[in-house]
Amino acid sequence: MIDTHVHIIRPDLFAYPWIESIDALQRSFTIEAYCDRAVAIGITKAVLMEVDVDVSDQRAEARHFRQCSMADHPLDIRYVASGRPELDDFERHLDAIDDPVLAGVRRVFHVAPAESIHSAALAGNLRLLGRRGLVFDLCVRPDQLADATRLVDGAPDTQFVLDHCGNPPVATDAYPLWKSDLLVLAERPNVCVKVSGLVNNLPPEGGAIDQLRPVLDHTVRAFGLDRMMFGGDWPVSLLAGYELADWVAIFRDLTAEWNEQPRDTVYSDVAERVYFSRDWKG
C-alpha cells in the first residue's frame, strides 16, 4: 500500500500558524514515528504532504522533506511542497525547491484569503507545474469545488489531485451540492482523487464505516477506480481519534468486497503513476 498523505510536523523547526490553537498537534511528529506505524501495517511507500507551514519556512520544510526521503528507513518517499502559485514570483520559488524526489506542490485554499483562488497569476503557474512534470494537490472546501474545476480547466496538461474527496460535508444540508460538484470536477480527465482525511469530516454520532460507505461509493461513481488513491492523513487523523492503523483498517473494510485488481489500483497503482513516475526536467 502507498500512503499519499503524510504530515511530518516539526514545531521545533518550523512555524505553523494554523496549529497554534490545536494543542494535540503542538509536538513533533517525525518521519521515524511515521515509519514505525506504516511498516507495521504494510505501507511500503509514502508521500509527505506540506503542512501549511508559515510562508517564511516553506523552503526549509521542503529541504527537511528531502532529508526525510534520504534517511535510513524502509520506505520509498516522495514529497509535495508548500507554495503560493497565486503569486507572480512562484517560478522562482519552484526553482529553489525543485529536485528529483519533489512530486508536486500544494496550496491550502480552504484557509487562504478568498482572492487567492482568483489570482490572475494562478492559471499560468499551474500550467508551469505541468510543464515540469509536477502535480498540484487541490485542498479546498466543498463550496470551492466549482472554483477547483475552473482551475483545472485552465491547466489541462497539469495533473491535479483532489485531497480528502473535496471534504464532503457529511450529514449536512451542503452534502447534495458536494455530490453534484464532485461529479462535474471528475469529468476532467487530469484530476485524480485522494481518499484521505474523511474521518475528520464525520459527525460524532454513527459508525465511521456506515457514514463513509456512501461517500466512497459516490467517489467511485464520479472518478472510477483508475483515478483514486489512498491517503492516511496522519497525524491530523488523531484529531478525530483515529490512529493510522485505525483508518487503514476502516479503508480495508470499505474496500473488502472489491476484487484484487481494483484494490491494487487504488492501494498503489494510481499513486505510483501520479507521484512516483515524474519525468524530472531539472
What is the first-to-last residue Cα distance?
Answer: 29 Å
What would CATH call the homologous superfamily? Metal-dependent hydrolases
Anisotropy-based shape: globular
In round numbers, the mean pLDDT is: 95
CATH architecture: Alpha-Beta Barrel
CATH fold topology? TIM Barrel
CA-based gyration radius: 17 Å
- The tally of structural domains comes to 1
Biggest sheet strand line-up: 1-2-3-4-5-6-7-8
Protein described:
The protein is of the alpha/beta class and 282 residues long. The protein has a single domain, classed as Alpha-Beta Barrel (TIM Barrel), CATH 3.20.20. It has nine helices and eight strands. An eight-stranded parallel beta sheet has the order 1-2-3-4-5-6-7-8. Helix 4 links the parallel strand 4 (102-108) and strand 5 (135-139). Helix 5 (145-153) runs parallel beside helix 6.
